[in-house]
Amino acid sequence: MAEVRIEHVFKRFGAVTAVNDFDLVVKDGEFVSILGPSGCGKTTTLRMIAGFERATEGEIYIGDHCVSSSIKGSFAPPEKRDIGMVFQSYAVWPHMTVAENVGYPLKIQKVDKKEREERVQKMLELVHLGEYSKRYPHQLSGGQQQRVALARALVAQPGLLLLDEPLSNLDAKLRESMRFEILAIQKELGITVVYVTHDQGEAMAMSDRVVVMSAGVVQQIGAPHEIYTKPANKMVADFIGLVNFIDGEVKGDRVFIKGSNVSFPNTAKVTGEATIAVRPENITMSLSGGQMEGQVTHRFYLGDAVDYRVNVHGHDIRVIVKGADIDAIPDGSKVYLDFDRVMVFDRN
Ligand SMILES: Nc1ncnc2c1ncn2[C@@H]1O[C@H](COP(=O)(O)OP(=O)(O)O)[C@@H](O)[C@H]1O
Ligand SMILES: [Mg+2]
């Protein structure tokens, strides 16, 4: 198993800085996700760890092995890095059976046939494809093909598994069940995982820690509950979960909702213009009284909840009430809101 250390890594493509001063230590056996919008540099980071891309600057270590160093000018190719990798596209060989696909890395390593067959079968059972060894990829569903790719990435027992949006091509239900399968396999093997995704739900549900990236820059690294409850900035708050952003004005040690006398402690010690942030599930709505008065403008039925839009002093605020009766508070109703777990950020 392996610890991964990424120190001051940059990747420039001409004028584009795809990855800007990336620093991360992934502990032995840890599951870390790199999360961010499309184009933020996730794949480039993973490809540098894998050795498919060479860092412009910085050092990468896998275990004790320095696999890439701009200072020493050293660079180990992917096959010298003790890694397994799974991509978004299934990338299994169509002309090979499931067993041949999974056994290929062992064939390259010249593992003898009998041992190869045993290890392939064991791996196929781990990914619940024990009965499918003689099939060809076109005889499998997308989810099954992706499990073949996973088994092939793991068969040589690498210290590090790298996954780049492995579930993005699967439908929603399968995507969710595969999350748990991948996690179960990771726990069983105790392998270190770096998992790239743009899906915050996936990152939250699977990871020990999440690295949130935007425009090539790491915005925050933390456990899922940390980045959700204590986002480092507006970008992280916006990308993880739902959030209301409300223009605020700092007066003394309070931040006021712009145009109102409703205020909250200036926890972030912002000066001048601030943004008040509150998640829809942290707002209590009542008909009888509360911190501020508003008017319901729209509402949307979500089945398990009602999603309201409430106008408060000209600000449009989203409130999600679990188990609410859609008819109880019609559009136009006067309501009162109470904010809990308010966050304060710099306006920009
Ligand atoms: N080979 C390349 N040549 C030039 N630009 C690239 C190359 N690969 C990626 N980029 C650019 O680097 C940025 C990050 O890309 P990528 O790592 O693929 O993002 P993500 O995986 O987060 O969607 C993007 O602006 C992308 O256009
Ligand atoms: Mg990508």
Summarize this, please?
This protein has 348 residues and is an alpha+beta fold. Helices cover 24% and strands 36% of the residues.
| Helix and strand sequence | EEEHEEEEHHHEHEHEEHHEEEEEEEEEE
Give the number of DSSP strands.
21
Per the principal axes of the C-alpha atoms, what is the gross shape? globular
CATH homologous superfamily caption of the largest domain:
P-loop containing nucleotide triphosphate hydrolases
Strand content: 35-45%
Structural class: alpha+beta
Mean pLDDT: 94
Which consecutive residue ranges, at least 5 long each, have pLDDT under 50? none
Bound molecules: adenosine-5'-diphosphate, magnesium ion
Largest sheet properties: 6 strands, mixed
Instruction: Specify the helix fraction band.
Output: 10-25%
Spatial order of strands in the largest sheet:
7-8-9-3-10-11
Tally of DSSP helical segments? 8
What oligomeric state do the depicted chains represent? single chain
Count the domains.
2
Q: Could you say what the CATH architecture of the largest domain is?
A: 3-Layer(aba) Sandwich
What name does the CATH topology of the largest domain carry?
Rossmann fold
Under CATH at level 1, the class of the largest domain stands as Alpha Beta
Protein name: ABC transporter, ATP-binding protein
GO cellular component, one term: ATP-binding cassette (ABC) transporter complex, substrate-binding subunit-containing
Pfam families: ABC_tran, TOBE_2
GO molecular function: ABC-type transporter activity; ATP binding; ATP hydrolysis activity
